[in-house]
Amino acid sequence: MSGRVLFHLLAYDIANPTRLKAVARIAESYGVRIQYSLFLMRLSPPRRDQLLAKLERIIHPREDDVRLYPLPARPEWETMGKAIWPEGVWLAGEWPENAEEEEADTQTEENGP
């Protein structure tokens, strides 16, 4: 996989309520909830690996199902029915060139050096 920041879909089915809450909290910190157990995320390869490592520590491999699907660089999608975002809100555009640097700076500030 390339070193580019790409959209990903994270989907999960977690058997235990405690693990479910933990997985949801992690997913919310990385992306936007699209449906109950489906998140849209923009991840660089290091952030993707970090996310997967965190999830691997929580899930039970014989009881839970977690899937992370990379999307094309310019994904297109159609929606029907009730939207999760208010009318007029769209997820579009490219991240600024320095988005990963700003993200790293923010994480350093939050977590310390």
Secondary-structure-derived class: alpha+beta
Number of strands: 4
- Computed over alpha carbons, the radius of gyration is 15 Å
Task: State the oligomer.
Answer: single chain
Quote the average pLDDT.
Answer: 81
Shape: globular
> What order do the SSEs take from the amino end to the carboxyl end, as H and E?
EHEEHEH
Query: If classified by CATH, what would the architecture of one domain be?
Result: 2-Layer Sandwich
Show unreliable segments: 93-100, 105-110
Fraction of residues in helix: 25-40%
The CATH class of one domain turns out to be Alpha Beta
Distance between the termini: 29 Å
Strand content: 15-25%
Description of the molecule:
A four-stranded antiparallel β-sheet has the order 2-3-1-4, with helices on one face. 36% of the residues lie in helices and 22% in strands. By secondary structure, it is of the alpha+beta class. The longest helix is centred in the first third of the chain and has 14 residues, at 17-30. Helix 1 runs antiparallel to helix 2 (45-58). Strand 2 (31-35) and strand 3 form a beta hairpin. The chain has a domain at 1-72: Alpha-Beta Plaits.
